[in-house]
């Protein structure tokens, strides 16, 4: 405990951002029940499926919720196809003609497999969301760009590697990612682990932009817009940051450089204040791991988080909620 000074700063999200909280008076239970009722439904007739998911509901946001929930809970992430596509796209990185030929050939395979086996990659998820929503009279765009995860390398001249959606509801655009809502990939087993994550449904744009960067920056839906360089250097946020709406504000970069004994201030936005007492910090350097429960000092709606390293050298600093990682930084502490 002597190595750390801790308090956590929480700033609640701006109500001007397009996010799920705009619909806090809407009860999504009926929409989720409709999606659950049609669990396992085949994809041989998309207009019929779209009608079944949307017709029992009255508002567009509920209809879209049913569609997003159904896709996220009934479509599996195809780990093998993702691996093959990634390898081929890296191979043809500097050959535009060969890359386009591969994309067209692979796209046909992806959609055929999606309709037959209900397995796909992000392109298939985004396509299915757009198709089912369009048939229900809801305007949806497929957004292509870059996604950052713990296993994703975007060094050098990166290739766009992810797709997601924007949906227009009540005259306003919102962001969602059915691929990441559907579950995650087990690094040990190299297989898809289903598990719905509601944090990617109508996500707060500022948080979404930390691991989603569109080719067309208009789809960031933020003002000001984060630059691609800042996106590449931002702290790494995990799915539980979205579940609990925890957004790092300061430091703005993932890599922190400081002098030994000099504290660094952290600021977070926290949408779910109920998890504040579950927050911990993990320091990780090789075989050295130290977890501490921070002493939280609340000032108004804010909590300050100040970290003073008692060790020098490079190490990882993780913010956690319970046993789940939320945000990661790389720290290098030098002697005074």
Structural commentary:
It is a single chain. The chain has 336 residues and is an alpha+beta fold. It has helices at residues 29-37, 46-54, 60-74, 79-91, 96-117, 122-135, 178-181, 205-208, 228-233, 239-243; strands spanning 76-77, 119-120, 140-147, 162-169, 172-176, 183-186, 191-194, 212-214, 236-237, 246-250, 255-259, 264-270, 279-285, 288-292, 298-299, 302-303, 305-307, 313-321, 324-334. The chain folds into 2 domains: 20-221, C8orf32 fold (Roll); 246-334, Immunoglobulins (Immunoglobulin-like, Sandwich), CATH 2.60.40.10. Helix 1 packs across helix 3, helix 3 packs antiparallel against helix 6 (122-135) and helix 4 runs antiparallel to helix 5. It starts with 28 loop residues before the first helix and ends with a strand.
Beta-strand percentage range: 25-35%
Number of E-state strands: 19
Shape, principal axes of CA atoms: globular
The pLDDT mean sits at 87
Which regions have little confidence, pLDDT < 50, spanning 5+ residues? 1-15
Give the structural class: alpha+beta
Gyration radius over CA: 21 Å
CATH topology description of the largest domain: C8orf32 fold
How many domains is the backbone divided into? 2
CATH architecture of the largest domain: Roll
Q: Please give the alpha-carbon distance between the first and last residues.
A: 21 Å
Which labels suit this protein?
10 helices; disordered N terminus; single chain; alpha+beta; Immunoglobulin-like; four-stranded antiparallel beta sheet
In terms of topology, how is this protein built?
Elements: H1 29-37, H2 46-54, H3 60-74, E1 76-77, H4 79-91, H5 96-117, E2 119-120, H6 122-135, E3 140-147, E4 162-169, E5 172-176, H7 178-181, E6 183-186, E7 191-194, H8 205-208, E8 212-214, H9 228-233, E9 236-237, H10 239-243, E10 246-250, E11 255-259, E12 264-270, E13 279-285, E14 288-292, E15 298-299, E16 302-303, E17 305-307, E18 313-321, E19 324-334
Parallel strand pairs: 1-2, 11-19
Antiparallel strand pairs: 3-4, 3-8, 4-5, 6-7, 9-19, 10-12, 12-17, 13-14, 13-18, 15-16, 18-19
């Amino acid at each position: 405990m002597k190595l750390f000074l801790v308090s956590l700063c929480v700033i609640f999200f701006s109500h001007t951002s397009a996010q799920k909280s705009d619909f806090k008076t809407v009860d999504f239970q009926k929409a989720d029940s409709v999606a659950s009722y049609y669990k396992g439904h085949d994809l041989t007739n998309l207009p019929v499926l779209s009608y079944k998911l949307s017709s029992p509901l009255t508002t567009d946001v509920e209809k879209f919720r049913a569609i997003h929930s159904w896709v996220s809970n009934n479509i599996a992430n195809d780990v093998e196809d993702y691996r093959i596509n990634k390898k081929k796209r890296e191979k043809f990185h500097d050959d535009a003609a060969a890359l386009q030929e591969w994309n067209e050939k692979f796209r046909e395979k992806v959609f055929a497999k999606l309709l037959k086996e209900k397995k796909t990659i992000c392109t298939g998820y985004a396509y299915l969301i757009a198709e089912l929503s369009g048939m229900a009279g809801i305007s949806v765009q497929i957004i292509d760009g870059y996604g950052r995860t713990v296993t994703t390398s975007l060094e050098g001249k990166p290739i766009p590697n992810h797709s997601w959606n924007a949906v227009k509801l009540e005259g306003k655009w919102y962001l969602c990612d059915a691929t990441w809502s559907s579950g995650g990939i087990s690094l040990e087993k190299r297989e898809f682990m289903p598990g719905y994550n509601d944090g990617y449904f109508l996500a707060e744009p500022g948080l979404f932009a930390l691991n989603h960067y569109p080719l067309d920056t208009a789809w960031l839906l933020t003002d000001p817009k984060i630059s691609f360089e800042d996106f590449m250097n931002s702290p790494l946020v995990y799915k539980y940051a979205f579940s609990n709406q925890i957004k790092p504000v300061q430091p703005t970069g993932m890599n922190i450089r400081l002098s030994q004994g000099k504290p660094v201030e952290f600021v977070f936005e926290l949408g779910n204040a109920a998890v504040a007492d579950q927050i911990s910090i993990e320091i990780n350097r090789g075989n050295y791991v130290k977890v501490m429960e921070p002493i939280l000092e609340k000032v108004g709606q804010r909590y300050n988080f100040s970290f003073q390293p008692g060790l020098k050298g490079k190490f990882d600093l993780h913010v956690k909620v319970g046993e789940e990682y939320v945000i990661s930084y790389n720290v290098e502490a030098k002697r005074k």
